[in-house]
Sequence to fold (175 residues):
Amino acid sequence: MDRWIDGCKSALKTLRGALNRGAFSLTLAACLAMVGGAAYYARNAGRTPTPAAPQPTIAPVVMTPSSVETLEDALARDTAPQPIWPLSGREQLTMHDEHAPQWSETLGIWTIHTGVDIAAAAGEAVLATLAGTVVRAERDAQLGNLIEIQHDDGHLSRYANLSTMLVTVGERVLQ
Fold:
């Protein structure tokens, strides 16, 4: 035990001598290394590895008359109308992000725009993307001649900046 105490005294004496000789930076670096090591140990102590995800179990499929698609259901699903492009040209003028506001030259404000701007020649016919009912057909102060069609599948189409409007509110249009 005396030998250990003598070793500690010798280490303290050496440390004091180093500090007196200007080895402060070396001592500070050693202290910072010890603090960093202790922080690393404290952060990672007691961590257990993440367990693997449980393997899915295979459950038997139980079929009942109501869970089986009939031929009529399959035919109706496969013949559901698909939207068409409303113009002969396919040139999109701008790409839009529904989460990022964009500057609107037409409105003169920053706004969220979820639509598609399509290039068209003046007077070109615009088609309904799907069959539906016209719910709005009027001159809008910011969007010009505007037609909105409520489609049978629940979607709403908006056609703006039209040169003329050939439909009226309540009118049924085909695709």
